[in-house]
Write a structure and sequence with these properties.
The radius of gyration is 17 Å and the shape is globular. By secondary structure, the chain is α/β, with parallel strands linked by helices.
């Protein structure tokens, strides 16, 4: 089973080495790592070229990170596609073999796991833990979503359900997973283990203003899929993030 990993980069020299190293150390035998760069001005491309495992590298202007991810998905040749951001990294060398084992069941269309936010520099320091839990049909109504960097998808699911919607900025990953899991009803399997560490910070959480914009985008994600959330759904989503501070 070939697994394609898409990493979008732009001026990522400070963190990309950790991302590349964690892919290089994976024990799964068939990995396609695709780097989609937005014409970085720093040493990102120099660092990427130090890693011979990288299967494909393009560097060109784009319309943002989700446009870059879409390019990577369209280039992917793997049976399964995952997204790993340029400041994220896998927790151990068996992550992709664990994912492949979950996909050995042909009925499984998607897989997700747990994630930890870590200090941007002291990455051994855990800031909060995103314990996703089992997905049920009504989970999205209660503010649930899986951690996107742990979300792996069979390539044909993208062909059926489509790519990231560029009309959204911070909620494009939420909308994609809502569409795949809830609207299209694709099957999923939960791996109850932390597979990804993400440096703390992010577009939707950077300020109160950004959080308000993210909530509006979350509402739009439902509307784009002709779905109607409960009146409390969009309030529960950020509350779940607060709860993660108390999970270890």
């Amino acid at each position: 089973m070939k697994i394609s990993i898409i990493t979008a980069t732009y001026n990522s020299a400070a963190t990309i080495r950790d991302t590349l190293s964690c892919i290089a150390m994976q024990d799964h035998p068939d990995i396609e790592h695709i780097i989609v760069d937005g014409v970085s001005k720093d040493k990102t491309l120099e660092i990427v070229r130090e890693f011979p495992h990288v299967a494909k590298l393009i560097s060109e202007t784009d319309k943002g990170i989700y446009d870059a991810m879409n390019k990577g998905v369209q280039m992917a040749q793997g049976d399964v596609v995952g997204i790993l951001n340029s400041d994220d990294f896998y927790t151990h060398a068996h992550v992709l073999s664990t994912v492949a084992e979950a996909f050995s069941n042909p009925a499984v269309q998607t897989v997700y796991a747990d994630l930890q936010y870590v200090h941007p520099v002291q990455t051994e320091k855990v800031v909060r833990t995103w314990k996703a839990g089992q997905y049920r049909k009504n989970s999205f109504y209660y503010g649930w979503m899986p951690p996107h960097p742990t979300f792996f998808v069979r390539r044909e699911v993208y062909e059926q359900a489509g790519l990231f919607n560029l009309a959204l900025r911070s909620a494009a990953d939420y909308e994609l997973m809502l569409r795949i899991l809830f609207r299209y009803g694709c099957s999923t399997e939960y791996i109850p283990e932390v597979l990804v560490k993400m440096r703390a910070g992010g577009m939707s959480n950077a300020s109160f203003k950004n959080r308000l914009r993210a909530n509006r985008e979350d509402a739009l994600a439902w509307k784009l899929n002709n779905l109607e959330p409960y009146f409390f759904t969009l309030y529960l989503k950020p509350i779940r993030k607060i709860q993660q501070l108390f999970v270890r």
